Amino acid sequence: MKTWPEVFDVAIVGGGNAALCAAITAAEAGAKVVILESAPKTYRGGNSRHTRNFRCMHGGPMSVLTDSYGEDEYFEDLMLVTKGKTDEVLARMAIRQSEECLPWMERRGVRFQPSLSGTLSLSRTNAFFLGGGKALVNAYYNTAADLGVSVAYDAEVTHVHRDGNRITHLEVKIAGAPKTIKARAFVLASGGFQADLDWLARAWGPAAKNFLIRGTPYNRGVVLRDMLDQGADSVGDPTQCHAVAIDGRAPKYDGGIVTRLDCVPFSVVVNREGDRFYDEGEDVWPKRYAIWGRLVAAQPDQVAYALIDSKSIDLFMPSVFPAIKADTIEDLGRQMGLDPAHLRRTVDGFNAACQPGTFHPTQLDGLRTHGLNVPKTNWARPLDTAPFYGYQLRPGVTFTYLGLKVDTRAQVHSPDGPLTNLWAAGEIMAGSILGQGYLAGFGMTIGTVFGRIAGAEAASHVA
Amino acid sequence: MSLDTSPPDLRQEARRQIEICNACRYCEGYCAVFPAMTHQKAFADGDITQLANLCHNCRGCYYACQYTEPHEFALNLPAALAEVRVESWERLIRPHGFSRLFQTNGTAIAGLLVVTLAWFFWALFAFRPESGVGFYAHLSHIVMVAIFVPVFLAPLALIAWSVRDYWREVGGGSVRLAHIWSALGAAGRMKNLSGGHGEGCNFENGDRFTDWRRVFHQLMMYGFLLCFASTSVATLMHYVLDWKAPYSLLSLPKLLGVPGGLMMVVGAFGLARLKMKADPELGARRVWKGEMAFILLLGAVAATGLGLYAVKGSGLVPTVLAIHLATVMTLFLLMPYSKMVHGFFRLAALVADAAKQDKA
User: Fold this and answer.
1) What is d(CA B96, CA B89) in angstroms, rounded to the nearest whole number?
2) CATH number at residue A217
3) Which of A78, A191, A394, B113 is most buried by a 10 A CB count?
4) ipTM higher than 0.90?
5) B188 at the A interface (CB within 8 A)?
6) pLDDT tens, A89-106?
7) Residue B199: its chain A contacts at CB < 8 A?
């Protein structure tokens, strides 16, 4: 920090994928760049640390990607999950540019690996990072260091100082000590606000206090809040977050990928009262995991319990914590804090509603219940073979939708027009494209595409 | 001898970490350990031993891991597996106390070296032959053979015994030629230190990948094999062709031995340097000194062997000869009780892995 200039060319707020792509692009264009990462070095990289792949358009086999994945198919997949809540111009731009991103990433040290075991369905559309998102983050920090980019860890930006349509400087606390960072251009890539439980509770309701945060505890939305308070244009539903159902024993923050549970399609899922509340077998899990966060969030105490028997224990990816195990349904209920007699009645009712037929764990097998108010429409087999297993489910928040509205140049706007030296990339602006739902690997696509645009725009602004 | 951490605790810790890894699988492309994990959900003791011996300590998974400290999952898989790996050698090789003494302790290795050295000086005086040329003028061929054959074969027998026990512990099953071939291929190219992308490992330079460890290890391994081949060829020449040492520079023993010795010296120097730079917290810390002493011993074997060639015909021959023979003998005696065993167990683990992959 001793050799820092008085004024940087480009100051980048955030230290994840989008921030790094912006920093590298700007530094390659000759700009003197600083990265202000609010996490300490061991936790650098924001939610990118927990990612595993990059959704990439391609006309033919490319790197580890098989076959082809065209713009229209990619866009249709996005329309499906967002139910049309997207900005078509921005979305198509991100999709088209994803193809040139992959070789760009490889040249800057990112390495890919074939689709992981258990994720074959993604081998055509998503390129997996060798070692996962933290390996990608490490590679980018090394590339940035080689380009002479300055990095401050434990550097929390508390205020973005706006003077008319320009940003003049940042107020930052570096390791707790207040500091002013001056620059000629600024990129905001500091993520959403999902780690601020108070903000979540204000937006969603008090139930949000019971949510688990799957990613970094450092995405508290301080910069997002500051910009919104200063009249920056916003986009995305301020009350909504993307949540999936995860293991209820996961850490409050930063549990990441391993806390996922893939057992729901083969389970009977009940709430705290011991009652079923939704069709566990509606569709294959990759298409349903995203709605279960909300389903569980709507139950009393924001908790649910997935019950399986020994027939199904090996049908899904291993869980990070072992299942609770019992020889009877009643004992399983007792161990999980549920009323044993009530649970017995629910399971008996479910078992009686199951029909004979052929069970197919990997496809929609139409094995459905009959006569239940809440049917199970696939993989419905009676829970009858001890030992029985149980998992507690809780909503795990991945990201929030509220963000800064940007244009195709990643520039941030206010009602008076664009802010002339301010750009945004990554989760802080992803709501511009993702209005609802989520498409696996698309967050990294948005971060990479807009990070590169923001970095190039910022560098040419100061050139 | 009291143990600071009992083996079941080490295995339990490794099991805890492996179960987290098996729910993540981001590291699948780095090496053979992670694909091998996916064959099961529950890990028996033998599975843990096998995974530990399959791990080459490249450390790629550590730097890529989002669950390392200060995260509450506190993963450090390279260290956890290294601890189990060393413990498995100490447990499987008899007598057990020896392993623990020499694996852990560089001073013990140096001590043994001094004892054998003294012994050779005494032998050189006591058994000085009436005739003979080259170093056989100082110690006759038959005496050398009488000393070295048992010192070489007995440790090998002990190792074979322990590898058989290893095979039973990990459930290796019947061996097929294809599996041995696959294991030799992986070892010959040191595939598991390639990082999966061919750029090497994260051993000595934080999260940056370098190929130096693979380079120096292969210099050492192939250098050692060349020297071993040189000795074997010379033995055959001696007995079958009745063609006795000393041999000229263009003879097969020299053509194999001189480059082999040079490769070992460079390899030992390189490996020692890398070990100085590497973070000891990502390995089995307890055996650091023993491992370092072993690298230096290998370097000393090669350097004194080359030295013997350099001082040919001078008055220094008996001194250098005694030192060289002492280093070789120490190396042989320590085969079961030093890092040298890793080669045997690693190869066994690679063969077992090839068999398990086949079955899966």
Assistant:
1) 9
2) 3.50.50.60
3) A191
4) yes
5) no
6) 999 999 999 999 999 999
7) 111
